[in-house]
Amino acid sequence: MANVWINSAGSDTSPYDTRAKGATSPLTATAFASAGDDIWMVVGTTYNITVDTTYDLSAGTDANPIKWHACTDTGTTTPDALATTGHIKGTTSTTDIIFKGNFKCYGIHFEVNGNFDDIKFCADDQDVEVFEQCEFTLKSAGSGGTFVTGTSSVGINTYLNTKNCTFNFDNHASQRFYIYGRYASEGDTFALLGGSAPSVVFPAASHGPASFHGSDFSALATTIVTGASVTPMMFTFNNCTMHASATWVDTISSKAQAEVYISDSSVGDVHYEFAHYDYFGNTTVSATIYANDTGAAKYDGTNGYSLKVTGTNATISHPYVSPWVKIYHDGTSAITPTFEVVRDGSATAYQDDEVWGEWAVKDNTGLSSVTYYDDRAYVLDTPANQATGDLGASDWTGEGGTAWFGKLVCPSVTPAEIGHISGRVCVSGAYTVYVDPTIRGV
Fold first, then answer.
1. Which residues contact 42 (CB under 8 A, 6 or more apart)?
2. Domains plus CATH for the chain?
3. What per-residue confidence (pLDDT) applies to 63?
4. CA–CA dist 397, 402 (Å, integer)
5. What is the C-alpha end-to-end distance of the chain, expressed in Å?
6. Mean of pLDDT over the chain
7. What is the reported pLDDT for 94?
8. Which of 62, 268, 293, 307 has the highest local Cβ count within 10 Å?
9. pTM score
10. What single-letter DSSP state applies at residue 119?
11. Which residues, 6+ apart, have CB-to-CB distance to 60 below 8 Å?
């Protein structure tokens, strides 16, 4: 394991192991580096490229990745934060920046300037790439370039992690971020230098899965994810920020394609948001209609909320199924887990082939496995109204003058082991039901 230097004022002398002998081109140093080496790029200058350039660090391995750092022009080997005065920049209209290999990069700014120029990560099978405190810019007012991780042929075998990085889009609706491999974004900023935002940030060709934790999309008044994915795609957003005029996901075209989970991610000072979207329907949070009795759910200990479960393309054979709600339970007596629900705008009860509950209970002695229970009507059953709720109009807030107050009740079950009781709500058509996300009866 050795130090390899990049220095525009160096002598370009192999093995480039001092600042004075540093390679004058980043491409020279990355091609020279071996597994476990540290590459130190002296900042304070711009390293221009004029043709498609591949930074191939395939000599790195999982056990010994190559480390590529920005550092000040002092001769020291201490990584610095993002360098604003020194970066790698494509200066022509036909200049892609491409990364290959197993490595970590810290504090470097990469920029392309052509109408169709791309920044491509994880271009080879099994690539594992980590970027921290880096910046990536699609600087173009013409036809947009793209960010790409993985390729359509090797996408499922690559992994990209970006942490506290910035991705700059610049005034073109067709700029995109294609995700063909696994991608984890942590604390990143997705920014707009000026003009028009991308019409969609993560488009249909993406494969995934992709997770975003603490990522900032507040500059982009646009659609974050398109649901018309051509391949299976799972997105999760946790503690992220979005623009007030943005939407997380547009129309999803198939259950076999995109699915999106959102947790505590919203606009500004909102901290209760939760959502799930797939082709059959969606679950969102309502802070307008909610149960107000003593046992009702509160998102901050004071203010109530409900889960708004809505079917879109759901059917009896392919219902929309909400995410699980859980409650810890350590008793071994018979229980009847229950959801209190309300139908707003109609006093007609939902029937058990329209809206029902499902529960998972650990009732197998000596095992961690669960048994599933439900209160639905099956194919040969005659549908019946779901039960009248224990909560009435005075126990709910925000519903209209006409409403049905009901409950979904699990058949009596006796847990055998400590653990969580899990429940979820299913709808078989274009129905909307508000669910108090407190499992009662336990």
1. 5, 6, 7, 8, 9, 10, 19, 22, 71, 72, 73, 86
2. 3-311 (2.160.20), 320-435 (no CATH)
3. 92
4. 13
5. 59
6. 91
7. 81
8. 307
9. 0.92
10. E
11. 33, 35, 36, 66, 101, 102, 103
